[in-house]
Design a protein that fits this description.
single chain, Leucine Aminopeptidase, subunit E, domain 1, Aminopeptidase, 2 domains, 8-stranded mixed β-sheet, elongated, binds ligand BES, binds zinc ion
């Protein structure tokens, strides 16, 4: 889809899209033809279209100076028109244009939308995301695509062009994350993810380290090695480094993602319906990669270290077993009493490695526990932290970009529940594992955090959904990406 700017409305067979606020009179709008305004006045008078959010009218216009068709889109009340409404409106435009199978459209942006052009355009891009790209119609290029969108606006050109650039960057990173999460593990496996990281580093000039199985053995990353033991492929630890802070010596923020390319549960095998979706258990790592796709392009002024712990929790004669005691990279010994609590085990090692960079703050992001879905459903990621400030900042950042979080507690007793009789800690709470599961998972990770300010984001309920937002599709959502990016931009 190509989007570009025009300085007047053109004639042709395409659709003219006009965005209308509920409370705006629009008697005369600079640049908008009288014919369109007359039509608008008429449908408003007849209450056929009021400009309420979600309102739309699609019709033919008989005028040789105008495009053949007109699509009016209601934006709702002006005072409610912020980030979310803008992105949703963009998605409504994109989905409507797709449903009427138009290959070309022209959108009129009134000046009042100046601050939200990027979100509207992002919504249009996101609405074109396809979840069935592996069907042969895509390889044969027989699928339908909007080819061209022209934007006609009275907003200053440089502002509008910047907004378009940002929208493209954001949507392409979100699409990238969604593809990684939606594709199955026979395609997105550990080598695939490591290779994507390599490409991102090369494209942006980031520092990168990728540790192979042998190197992980040498360094003693017993957690990642144990979880991956039954896989036919090597595990990897990927580290990406971005120096965007004015002061290059500024301590970085470490963002550490769980990258389990498939979680069978190991010998504590998952029942069928729970296993089917487990190719998405690398969503945390996908968010880390997605962030690195945009940090440089958006000129984020922070130093950031991204760590992805990549492994497969598979089954086989060589699989790690309940009661195994392993030694982690930090030296801590862990009694494995549940092979399905593998995310925290790989994250433990990844967090330990991140300490090498002396981070100012550490954020872990993972599809860690089914319990977070039970507690918060698909609307909120669970935020668990040893520091109120970083948690509040992340919650606030998430709220601003419609990527919501909600706090869950980290009580000393939950930490105690992770103590073991035979090792330093165990990876699951033995007797009451159905209580406070998300907090206890985080309590395990905290054992690897030194004195750092740390927040854990459990995206097991939000990374993947059957109830998408207007600008999402069923499946992967890229949750956590928007929250973290806003956090890096703002705090
Ligand atoms: N990958 C799962 C968590 C998960 C569940 C993600 C549902 C997405 C959707 C994780 O590795 C896991 O199996 N967690 C266990 C933890 C338990 C063994 C302490 C769980 O949630 O049951
Ligand atoms: Zn598991
Ligand atoms: Zn898992």
């Amino acid at each position: 889809m190509i989007i570009n700017f025009e300085n007047k409305i053109t004639t042709g067979k395409h659709v003219l899209v006009v965005l209308v606020f509920e409370d705006e009179a629009m008697k005369s709008v600079k640049g908008l033809p009288d014919k369109v305004l007359e039509f608008l006045a008429k449908v408003r008078a007849n209450k056929e279209f009021t400009g309420k959010k979600g309102d739309k009218i699609y019709t033919y216009i008989e005028d040789k100076n105008l495009p053949e068709k007109l699509l009016l889109i209601g934006l709702g009340k002006k005072e409610n028109f912020k980030y979310r409404a803008a992105k949703e409106s963009g998605a409504i435009i994109g989905k409507t244009l797709k449903s009427v199978k138009t290959k070309e459209a022209e959108i009129f942006f009134p000046v009042g939308l100046k601050n939200f052009i990027d979100e509207i355009l992002e919504g249009i891009f996101l609405s074109q995301y396809e979840t069935d790209k592996l069907k042969t119609k895509f390889t044969k290029k027989e699928d339908f695509k909007i080819e061209k969108i022209k934007i006609f606006t009275t907003v200053e050109k440089n502002i509008a062009e910047k907004a378009l650039e940002k929208a493209k960057i954001m949507a392409s990173a979100a699409d990238f994350i969604k593809d990684l999460v939606n594709y199955p593990s026979n395609i997105v496996d550990v080598p695939y993810l490591a290779n994507e990281a390599k490409k991102i580093a090369k494209e942006n000039g980031y520092g990168i380290e990728i540790f192979s199985e042998d190197e992980l053995k040498k360094m003693g990353a017993g957690g990642i090695l144990a979880v991956n033991q039954a896989s036919k492929k090597e595990p990897k630890l990927v580290v990406l480094k971005y120096n965007g802070a004015k002061n290059k010596k500024e301590k970085p923020i470490a963002i550490v993602g769980k990258g389990i390319v498939f979680d069978t549960g190991g010998l504590r095998i998952k029942p069928g319906q729970y296993m089917d979706e487990m190719h998405q258990d690398m969503a945390g790592a996908a968010v880390v990669l997605g962030l690195f796709k945009v940090l440089k392009k958006l000129n984020i002024q922070k130093n950031v270290v991204g760590v992805a712990a990549l492994a497969e929790n598979s089954l086989g004669g060589n699989a790690y077993k309940p009661s195994d005691i392993i030694t982690m990279l930090s030296g801590i010994t862990v009694e494995i009493n549940n092979t399905d609590a593998e995310g925290r085990v790989v994250l433990g090692d990844a967090v330990t490695y991140s300490l090498k960079y002396n981070p100012k703050k550490i954020i872990t992001i993972a599809t860690l526990t089914g319990a977070v879905y039970v507690a918060l459903g698909h609307k909120y990621s669970g935020l668990i932290s040893n520091d109120g400030k970083i948690r509040r900042e992340l919650l606030q950042a998430g709220k601003e970009v419609d990527d919501l979080g909600w706090p869950l507690p980290l009580h000393p007793e939950y930490k105690k529940a992770m103590e073991s009789k035979v090792a330093d800690i165990r990876n699951d709470d033995k007797d009451t594992s159905r209580s406070a599961g998300s907090s206890k998972g985080a309590a395990f990770i905290e054992k690897f955090i030194d004195k750092h300010d740390w927040c854990h984001i459990d995206i097991a309920g939000t990374a993947f959904t059957d109830i998408p937002k207007p600008y999402e599709s069923k499946g992967a959502t890229a949750s956590g990406f928007y929250m973290l990016l806003k956090f890096l931009e703002k705090y």
